Amino acid sequence: MAYDATKLKDYQIAELAEANMPTPGQWREKLGLEKDEVIPYGRICKLDFMKIIDRLRNRPNGKYINVTAITPTPLGEGKTTTTLGLVEGLGKRGMNVGAAIRQPSGGPTMNIKGTAAGGGNALAIPMTEFSLGLTGDINDIMNAHNLGMVALNARMQHERNYSDEELAKRNLRRLDIDPTNVQWNWVIDFCAQGLRKIIMGIGGRTDGYMMESKFNIAVSSELMAILAVARDLQDLRERIGKIIVAYDKKGNPVTTEDLEVAGAMTAFMRNTINPTLISTAEYQPVLVHAGPFANIAIGQSSIIADRIALKMFDYHVTESGFAADIGFEKFWNVKCRFSGLVPNVSVITTTIRALKMHGGGPKVVPGRPLPEEYTRQNLELLEKGIANLLHHINIVKKSGVIPVVCINAFYTDTKEEIAMVRRYAEQAGARCALSEHWLKGGEGALELADAVIDACNEKVDFKYLYPLEMPLRQRVELIAKEVYGADGVSWTPEAEAKAKMFESNPAYADFATMMVKTHLSLSHDPNLKGVPKGWVLPVRDVLVFAGAKFLCPMTGSIMMMPGTGSDPAFRRIDVDTTTGKVLGLF
Amino acid sequence: MAYDATKLKDYQIAELAEANMPTPGQWREKLGLEKDEVIPYGRICKLDFMKIIDRLRNRPNGKYINVTAITPTPLGEGKTTTTLGLVEGLGKRGMNVGAAIRQPSGGPTMNIKGTAAGGGNALAIPMTEFSLGLTGDINDIMNAHNLGMVALNARMQHERNYSDEELAKRNLRRLDIDPTNVQWNWVIDFCAQGLRKIIMGIGGRTDGYMMESKFNIAVSSELMAILAVARDLQDLRERIGKIIVAYDKKGNPVTTEDLEVAGAMTAFMRNTINPTLISTAEYQPVLVHAGPFANIAIGQSSIIADRIALKMFDYHVTESGFAADIGFEKFWNVKCRFSGLVPNVSVITTTIRALKMHGGGPKVVPGRPLPEEYTRQNLELLEKGIANLLHHINIVKKSGVIPVVCINAFYTDTKEEIAMVRRYAEQAGARCALSEHWLKGGEGALELADAVIDACNEKVDFKYLYPLEMPLRQRVELIAKEVYGADGVSWTPEAEAKAKMFESNPAYADFATMMVKTHLSLSHDPNLKGVPKGWVLPVRDVLVFAGAKFLCPMTGSIMMMPGTGSDPAFRRIDVDTTTGKVLGLF
After folding, report:
1. Are B321 and B299 in contact (CB under 8 A)?
2. A106 — contact with chain B (CB < 8 Å)?
3. I want to staple B184 with a disulfide (CB 3.0 to 4.6 A). Which of A212, A392, B197, B245 is the partner?
4. pLDDT at A296 (0 to 100)
5. Which family, according to the similarity comment (chains A, B) (predicted)?
6. In this predicted structure, what is the pLDDT of residue A20?
7. Residue A233's closest chain B neighbor by CA?
8. For chain B, what is the radius of gyration of the CA atoms?
């Protein structure tokens, strides 16, 4: 029986569902895991990745289901909700099913957006743990990341203060770091716009090395990217050692290994290798692992989580951040390439609301009431906006995957509106299902579950958009044209110079292309809705993540540190001091 | 049977001992706890404070044993080792015993000092968890602290950018924060000297508010101080709301409650209320809770940990940071006053090495070999240095407690040296015991255990050094003269003006005096060893911790952010990627 989502708030549903949530011991029995493979952390637990992958190494993989979306409104279109609802629906059909999602960042949770636990009857529980730090992975990443910066700045101070002889006494060689070419920064997991640009090291000889620096949000850390793509602990350790933190005065890279801090950084991240296990409101298992944003990073839960989930479950649902132009493109050309795994199907989450916005509906602003266009039937706006959905269907089809369009139902949607979306989606060659998981949980997601089961029986001729041999600028051009629908790409002189260097240096030959772009438009301009035409993608810089093996073309004005608004969520959060419960999460 | 500490390194002893360490479930049986009172976190667990204190509320308290020390060398004189050894010794005598210690900071652990897990057979295990983050309390404090600063700086930005009308639309009133009088800062739990002073908010209208700011080490956070002194969750919540983060342009305090962030900060700290349970190498229980430095903060494990430990154990040993002039003085006049608890005895940890240094021995430098004076018999230096021990004995006696001097044995100590210390200590009215817990574990600490048991039978006429009615400057004068042995106190004009303000404002009437002073000398000058004479204590500022209810006179040049040296511990730390074990901790 589903909870009455029209009357109960999410945290109330969470509290009711949490009363019967499986304990770590019950999960162990339910999932057939061995004793040592479940590591309890209070009400939740981590799974021992290395033990499980070793024990199940000969078991065939389950079906691999990706969830993506159309270009969302700033409110989000319920991709996590759909992921959880689909798992619940497959569960109602008696399938052995699980999911992998990302850990939410404290930034959005404390700012405007709130938590990312899904909603209604398609909810991730326990909601407090999920929303506030889980089993500590982001903290571990933050500490490991900042330790790297401590090592870097302290080393610059000591090299400034000491002669070569004095350094040699401490068994240190001069790295001769170029203070104008420092790549590494600090991280914090809040929206701290005041730390976007800082001057540090103000003071005397022993107060560090004075330089410009910055804090990015922790989930944009290269360490988060590495956690998302590492295959195992050894791979994690090796990648951490290859991170380029700066360049020396001759232009050679200086790495964490050069700073002799890569081992200690890995020590801080030793537990992050193990995914956390939580639950849907209907008690289906959900792995939470890694939490990179999709506009500035890979935006996927981890390869590690998918690897064990595909061994543990017959149907495994994994979420890609934001819309198919970003989330699915990175899933397809980066995550699957790195993992070698092939998806059976991709679900494109769609709402009538977002399609109307793409058709020219008024601006949707978080925290303000929705304009009438979105709450009453409006087939004109909808029909115009469907172009955005069709574009995303085509993106997915280019990978060889036939998508399932999921209409994530709102109570204001009309039958005519739903029928129109369905007609266009099916004409474009996709399956389509209406899903009411928010209202009804798994019972509401049966149509979606059946469409997905059906799609999983099809053979997929999966092919990457580009081979790794393709030079960087050509790849970016291909992504811009084929995925975003641009006419071409323009490069700033700095970005082009960097791109040429990466293309000519064999050290970067097997690096993936990790686009950095807004999720609010197919283009780089968040104001251009629908399917923008006649535009050119501007690349202003190319970052290198040598540990993750990403070359990151930066398009538009994406920030690595969001800002806290004037009416942030933290205003409404508190603790009941008699019960210890957290109040006000939403 | 003790491990051979002369051959095995600490991490090797830890690994051997950890093989048979009690699981969370076994601890529950051993300590007679209820199921819900033990909250597992991997191999270790937290104890549910509120449930345990409620269930055992009518049980009489056990004996309350404090451990302090003489003025240490920069190497430390084994106070944690003695705490753990004493617990093991009392355990060997068949007593129901436990301890409370502080969580180590990542700063020293990654820098020169290494971990603070004790050593030899008096070791805290599991060592990796203990050294690297435990159950996340410091991370929770760091996040809660930094969220406060995010709220403060974002509010300053929005108040600058918006009119009163625009603020009112968001239900915000203008706090009118004085940017030149911001008290709150950022924290990070490493020795990041480059962040001691920063300029933040560089950029445009939406890049925060530009101002000078700083990062302190996380363990110096007022939130850590609050965790150490809070009696329960409600007290924690109330104290967090009273933190003064800045003053407005009229000079009125602006608090976290004014920023509407105190509830969310408490939400991040909701789990910190529960102490973590770990083990000695001989499987006696050790609570780890709070981790403030003693030179810049209260330097004690928490009141909460002591409250449940005194209910759970017949003998409870709690450690005070650094020497009796700092650690014991704060235990005596702040912690015990806030908790209402009365100690039965205080153990003064002493080493022959440190006494020789106080007698005029050469400088002791971490990472360099010990000069010969410390490794061969030298009764002359020793006899001169004993004055420091006698001074600390007198400090403890002023509280009404008769101390037990523990000579923490080194293999280079001679019989004559030990006999000399014993003679002086006993002449001064203290009990004295030689203890070889490092070498022999509990068997080596039986003499100490017996002396402590004996001392616990004495009636204690416990009295504070000063009543809270005494004005601030008079209190500081009293502490300087009676505890440190100064001739008087000098105040900078700024410090004196602040002191006068605090004295005249009834809001601060029940605040404790929390001295900030180096631990390396009885004076404010770390170079003055022994018992410095003819000096005046300089107070350069007075900080206010309105949530913790501390007024903190800052003496000498104590820094709230240590620096990372040129040969830090992180250079030698790594992870074995086949076993997942952390290597190189010491």
Report:
1. yes
2. yes
3. B245
4. 72
5. Belongs to the formate--tetrahydrofolate ligase family.
6. 96
7. B577
8. 24
Residues of B annotated as catalytic (active site), given as ranges: 79, 81, 102, 113, 294, 322, 410, 438
Binding region of B: 73-80
Name the superfamily (CATH) of residues A472-555.
Answer: Formyltetrahydrofolate synthetase, domain 3 (3.10.410.10)
Please give the backbone phi and psi of residue B391, each rounded to the nearest 5 degrees, phi first: -60, -45
Per-window interface: B 249-268 vs A, CB < 8 A: 260-261, 263-264, 266-268
What's the pLDDT at A254? 98
Tell me which residues of chain B, numbers 132 to 151, contact chain A at a CB-CB cutoff of 8 Å. Answer: 132-133, 136, 139-140, 142-143, 146-147, 149-151
Per-residue confidence at A393, pLDDT binned at 50, 70, 90? very high
Predicted pLDDT at B454: 98
Tell me what ipTM this predicted complex has.
0.95
* Per-residue DSSP letter, B219: G
Smallest Cβ–Cβ distance between B564 and the set A110, A154, A568 belongs to A154
| A407's tokens | 């209409």
Q: How many helices (H) and strands (E) does chain A have?
A: 21, 25
Domain ranges of chain A: 139-258, 472-555
- The CA–CA distances, whole Å, from A36 to A25, B469, B536, B575 equal 11, 57, 60, 20
Range B58-81 average pLDDT: 94
Both tokens assigned to B41: 């976190």
Residue B93 has a pLDDT of 98
Please report, for residues A20, A296, A453, A519, the alpha-carbon distance to residue A95 in angstroms, rounded to integers and kept in the order given: 21, 35, 10, 33
A139-258 homologous superfamily: Domain 2, N(10)-formyltetrahydrofolate synthetase (3.30.1510.10)
pLDDT digits (tens, 9 = 90+) for A330-382: 999 999 999 999 999 999 999 999 999 999 999 998 778 899 999 999 999 99
Q: CATH fold of B10-136+272-456, please?
A: Rossmann fold (3.40.50)
Q: Six-digit token pair at B257?
A: 């409650």
Beta-strand pair B404-408/B345-350: parallel
Contacts of B217 in chain A (CB under 8 A): none
Indicate the Cα dihedral angle A28, A30, A32, A37, nearest 10°.
-20
Residue in chain B closest to A256 (alpha carbons) equals B571
The A244-248 sheet, strands edge to edge: A177-182, A244-248, A253-255
Which residues numbered 16-55 in A keep a CB inside 8 Å of some CB on B? 24, 39-42, 46, 50
- State pTM to two decimals: 0.96
Inform me whether the C-beta atom of residue B365 falls under 8 Å from chain A C-beta atoms.
no
Alpha-carbon gap, residue A499 to A508, rounded angstroms: 11
Contacts of A106 (CB under 8 A, 6+ apart): A132, A133, A138, A189, A190, A218, B143, B147
